[in-house]
Amino acid sequence: MRVVVPFAAETPKTRLESALTPAERSTVARAMLADVLRAIVDAGHEPTVVSTAPLALDALDLSSDIAASTSIAVDNRSLTDAVNARLPVLETDGDEGETESDDATAAPDPVAVVMADLALATPDALERLLSASADVAIAPGRGGGTNALVVRHPEFRVDYHGTSYLDHREIAREVGATLETIDSFRLATDIDEPADLVEVLVHGREGDRAPARLREMGFELDGRDGRVGIARSEDRATK
Amino acid sequence: MRVVVPFAAETPKTRLESALTPAERSTVARAMLADVLRAIVDAGHEPTVVSTAPLALDALDLSSDIAASTSIAVDNRSLTDAVNARLPVLETDGDEGETESDDATAAPDPVAVVMADLALATPDALERLLSASADVAIAPGRGGGTNALVVRHPEFRVDYHGTSYLDHREIAREVGATLETIDSFRLATDIDEPADLVEVLVHGREGDRAPARLREMGFELDGRDGRVGIARSEDRATK
Question: What is the third-level CATH fold of A2-89+107-194?
Fold first, then answer.
């Protein structure tokens, strides 16, 4: 399946600014993107990174098999517009005015959209989403967001503003699309804020880039109080 | 399956104190407990509330079928000790010194432990956990916690202090128990902090008590900025 991975190349992860310098945020954002691409390819699918600015595939330092399955497109429109431009449309035979013809049995190819900061994504979690049979399947994020979805219905369109999970449920209802919600902690965990970095260190997989980069920057788990946080070794924190 | 639900009856949900009065915190904690009990019973299992202080079943206002399947025990020990006292032990024939006999093929009944603040728990999510075949199955919470687990191995014991998810993985390894991690957003979401209340309003099920109580207190979704928050109507906020 074609999997669109939107990526904000120019101002990555601004809400991590209290924990990371701009250069570090860029490094971590690219490492998470590389981990997401690896999970998608390992699940047997072909990712297209839709980047807000030119992005060299070489700069992601992907292994050769992952790089060979990955393509990059540049689109500086809003997230909503860039995604909608890539969702399934009704197949037509080329004649004008026949988009609503009775040839609609030829279902369009489904398209998945997976955010680039789902650092905990695994092939198993993605496969639960990508194999859902509903017209629209959504993996919600915390706070009512939409972290990943699969669209098989030609009339469904996204709107990422606000409580997008609830909005997407309503949009599916309006166009008569069946909907399934995928209950996944890994897909619900987008890495936005410093507290989220804990999840990368706890749940990162063998070979993942993001936990490796964070550890190189001096981050480690800190379990002194109730919910576990992160600590940074002092000699690194002033960089 | 027997499902232990630890409940802190005396000081419920202190980390919600910036959003809720003590009386409101108690109301919301009991509503979440009632919702968790309903999900467990609807999944076909029998919950035992292990409360730190006497708790009247009547005060939870459960429907009669849920009340009939629920029992309450009082145990004022620490969470770790109260849970460990209820985990499976090796069956013996009563003769001293034979706990390690070759009669170990009689596997003990499994025991599940589900936290009382998993307000998003559904029968489906619980069943994914409870039907896992591993010796120990864990649904991690955010921040490296253990929100729910099933124990089928007679030597496994819990330790809820610190990064308990990682500690429990290590304890399972030490006793030779197989381990499975359950990837569930619903089970990963314990309601600890004001931001977590958003999840109750977004993902609560038809008939759930906790979202109903929060709405009665004036809380509603507020999507004005990026990640959705909650707002409280002003006439209620000063109670």
Answer: Spore Coat Polysaccharide Biosynthesis Protein SpsA; Chain A (3.90.550)
